[in-house]
Amino acid sequence: MTTLRPFNCDDLFKFNNVNLDTLTETYAIPFYMQYLAHWPEYFQVAESPTGEIMGYIMGKSEGQSDSWHGHVTALTVAPEFRRLGVAGVLMNWLEEISEKKDAWFVDLYVRVSNTVAISMYKSLGYTVYRTVLEYYSGDPDEDAYDMRKALSRDVERKSIIPLEHPVRLEDCD
Question: Where is the N-acetyltransferase domain (predicted)?
Answer without folding.
Answer: 2-152
